[in-house]
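Sample intake sheet
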Amino acid sequence: MNYEIHSFDKIPSTQEYAHEMIANGTASDRTIIVAAAQSAGRGRYRRTWVSAPGNLYASFVYKTDARDPRLSYCVAVAVAETLCHFGIAPKIKWPNDILVGAKKISGILIEYSKHFVIIGIGVNIKSNPDIPGYETTKTDSHKRGITPDGFLTVLADKMDVWTERLSARDFASVRSRWMELAAGLNSEIKYQGRPAILCEINLDGALVLRRGNDYILALGDEISI
């Protein structure tokens, strides 16, 4: 695992620590910040991410020259492939949730700062939080013996495999694997408050939706699955 690793027993947030490193000029390419627990973990829209000990809380830091919406698909596939490595069958729920048995087991948060991208990944291993209206699960419920360190070692390798396909101009293979793992394909979702059918993603990372005989390309967070 060719990464610089900053490991903590407990910090407020691995994501915020990465932002601080970038702000003070100490960040470098291929860095992982990992914590056994977080006191102020967060997900998308600054929602609280419950961070009890025994799970994986990590932020990957990479140098980048530009934002690429397709990166989220690469990361989702990397997390899903890590679960597959341990004999667990996942599904990817757009935009950033990994499911096992229709229950959330992992979440992804991608943020940009200056010339860096920070990819936060949380995985429920020993425990899973109670979230009203959203069922969760943990790896221990499907395969015993997985540890946060063991998961991270495999995940780092999978991150290299799948994120490097963007720079190699091979998003087609990422798209193909994402489609195999995607939850909700060819089913009804909500787009801008109205029903539509989720068909696929295209090579630009846009969702392809169908409403009647019309096809729509959608980017952003206007979709509810």
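Comment: The CA atoms of residues 13 and 210 lie 39 Å apart. Residues 188-224 form one domain.
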